[in-house]
Amino acid sequence: MIEFAARACAFFNGDFYWIQSQSTGLIAVPEPSMEPMFLAPDASDEAIGESISAALKASRMIAPAEFNKRWSAGEFSRLEAARENEAIDRFCYKNRKALRREMRLCWIIPIQIAVSASNTEIGEAVRKGFSLCQIGKK
What we know:
This protein has helices at residues 45-58, 64-72, 75-90, 96-100, 119-132, and strands at 7-12, 17-24, 28-30, 37-39, 104-108. By secondary structure, the protein is an alpha+beta fold. Strands 1, 2, 3, 4 and 5 form a five-stranded antiparallel beta sheet that branches.
């Protein structure tokens, strides 16, 4: 039996935070039932942590047969493209390359988070992680 671990990912490019739930099949994919959450760069640590907690709760295991069917049908690719297009439109980027230019990524699984961690502590940790990232810095 495959062990399930809830997953979420947080992106940050200096203009906004993009937090989304990830479900696990044969690989981690965006969870279709939960819309991504977009937060301003000055969002509170509490808001970031709350969004991450919600994304982790929405994460689920996808059975291999269902995953293969949905993968073959291109469902996950279409979902990711639609979400990227939403971000491009919402934040007025010219294209995908411009959106992703200085995008940082943080994969989050509950094992990385203390059971007693508050939403504020989770948000602080993610913000600190992004501040240590060297992408785009000179």
